[in-house]
Amino acid sequence: MKVAERRKAIVNLLLSSDKPVSGSELAQKFGISRQIIVQDITVLKGTGYEILSTNQGYVIQKSPLKERVFKVRHTTDETEDELSCIVELGGTVVDVFVWHKVYGRIEAGLNIFSKLHIKQFLEGVRTGQSTELMHITGGYHYHTVRADSEAALDCIEDALRKRNYIVPEI
Q1: Of 18, 65, 129, 145, which sees the most CB atoms within 10 A?
Q2: How far apart are CA 112 and CA 143, in angstroms?
Q3: Tens-digit pLDDT profile for the chain (170 aa)?
Q4: DSSP codes, 9-47
Q5: Packing angle, helices 23-30 and 34-46, rounded to 10
Q6: Which residues is 143 bridged to in the sheet?
């Protein structure tokens, strides 16, 4: 894993965690030393992330990243293209959720930001470990997407729209 990818993964992990994440935990997860984690956190702070170091671990207070929710619809065969479109344009697919008429919102965290994550997700679906949430709502689903800027999110939205994945507003 490259340094930039590791730092992006650290940010995504901190943003998705509801509790502090220790330096030891991060070091073990990424197979590096705690000293390198400390350096990564310092660099991330320098680029605008408000990361607090507590006695229980790291907590992210504020992120310079932007988020947008996209309502999409596509087939199972188009899932890889949809995810690749987002990731290749610098986005992270934070989650997927659907609105079920009886159960309400059903959500799953994804944190997909690389081709490897896409491959792992698709492998889980294709091997029958699970099915995609979109199948319980006729293909309709939502993704929270995170990116460096509103401009990047605009590019992602345009690309999804050109592929006819965006559900038009009524």
Answers
A1: 145
A2: 11
A3: 789 889 989 998 998 888 999 999 999 999 999 999 999 999 999 988 999 999 999 999 878 889 999 999 999 999 999 999 999 999 999 999 999 888 899 999 898 999 999 999 999 888 876 788 888 888 899 999 999 999 999 999 999 999 999 998 77
A4: HHHHHHHH-SS-B-HHHHHHHHTS-HHHHHHHHHHHHHT
A5: 100
A6: 70, 96
